Amino acid sequence: MKPIKQFRRVGSRIPLRFTIWLYFVLFTVAVFALIWVFQIFFFEKFYEKMRIQSTAASMDSIAEIYNSADRQKNYETVLEILSDDEEKEKLYAAVKDTGDAEDLCVEVLDKYGREMMKKHVMGECIIHDRGINSGVLLNSIDDSENGVIIKKVKHPRNGSYMLVYGCALGDPKAPDGYLLLNAALVPVGATVKIIKSQLMTITIILIVLAFIISLYLSKRISAPIDRITKSAEILAKGDFNTKFDGRGYLEAKKLADTLTYAEKELSKVDTMQRDLIANVSHDLRTPLTMLKAYAEMIRDLSGDNPVKRNEHLEIIISETDRLALLVNDMLDLSKLESGKQKLNPTEFGISAKLGEIMDRFRGLSEKNGYHIHFTPDEERMVYCDVVKIEQVIYNLINNAINYTGEDKQVFVRQINTEDGVLVEVEDTGDGIEEDKIKLIFDKYYRSENHKREVVGTGLGLSIVKAVLKMHNYDYGVRSTLGKGSTFWFKISNLEKK
């Protein structure tokens, strides 16, 4: 067998090891780039947004407690609610808990702007310390559409930025009171510098670790592929004894197992192909030798003797027929396997066709002592390629003649079934070993269990297989050692579709 050609795709010469390492490093760099973008450049915006959402939620929870009391008991002012010990306790608990939990300064005012309740958390609170005019805030609340305001203001003394929330208690158009919240916006500049310094250190350490780990992983992942590739290159040169080592991971092992199986199959094909070449060479050499020998005999000895000359010419014609049979079988099989031959189905009676074929074999039976027994069933019309089905039956009968026992008995049976017609051809030879049955239809295989010179090339059963596959018919063989074999196929097309 010629070495298998190696195909290389342009642009795919980058080593797998380098590709894995590069992807791993690029992934790591991309992850850290995202971390830098979100943690450094958008940190302040994220912080401010989250602080606003948290403060708004705290304001809503306190306002909801007041509004709930207002709806249930029809209080008209904050002072009236605070005169109810139960409601005062609820509101004070909400103010205190919110201030402690959220680091908020909270203040509850009546509708005249007088302080009724507060929770002081921060050292400098812009509301409690009157860093901002409360009257301005209350007017802003009254002027707002929904009775809620939010302002980002700068403390007049320390210069820090703070969030101021305010909302009307009760009806926004005629408030019973007001709720003010003050949340500090901690300067994030220094925080960003600290995070940036730490992030830089972590990034350098992790990129170095990623570099080392990726080198190790790429080497570990690519090592089985490298070993398998080297073995495949040896296999491509025609060495069918190479070993495929897929240790490392499951996919590599599966690939190695697949290539090992392919190696075994290629080895079988190579052996069978050599056997076929040897068989064909032998089949060619014998008739060619005979042709040359008898042609020389006609030239030198029997040219003037009509009886001898005719005898020698008959042998030459017979040997020429053997050569033609060999060439035709090889051409037929090549066309069938390449798909160049197409089916030409017609409708005919299978019982009549089998009887016609038996009549043609009658001369061989009488001349060489074979006994071909035909058991027909009722006539059944079938729809298939009559020429190719004839070829199948001829090859099966010839195969049975070649391998039948010393009694030279061959049995052909037609068995009608509900869904088709079963055709069986049985011989009384030595049979086929069970492990060889699966090879019997292979074009490179020829059984050794025969007692006479085999007529043909060993391609008959391969032609049978190709024709039946074209028709999509079931076929097979049953065999018992010492008792013979039965080859069968089933015609399933009974009428034109």
From TrEMBL:
Keywords: Kinase, Membrane, Phosphoprotein, Transferase, Transmembrane, Transmembrane helix, Two-component regulatory system. The chain crosses the membrane at residues 20-43, 199-217. This is histidine kinase. It catalyses: ATP + protein L-histidine = ADP + protein N-phospho-L-histidine. PANTHER family: HISTIDINE KINASE 1, TWO-COMPONENT HISTIDINE KINASE. One of its GO terms (molecular function) is phosphorelay sensor kinase activity. Residues 279-495 form the Histidine kinase domain. Gene3D superfamilies: 1.10.287.130, 6.10.340.10, Histidine kinase-like ATPase, C-terminal domain. Its EC number is 2.7.13.3. InterPro entries: HATPase_C_sf, HATPase_dom, His_kinase_dom, HisK_dim/P_dom, HisK_dim/P_sf, Sensor_HK_Regulatory, Sig_transdc_His_kin-like_C. It comes from the Bacteria. Pfam families: HATPase_c (PF02518), HisKA (PF00512). It comes from Ruminococcus flavefaciens.
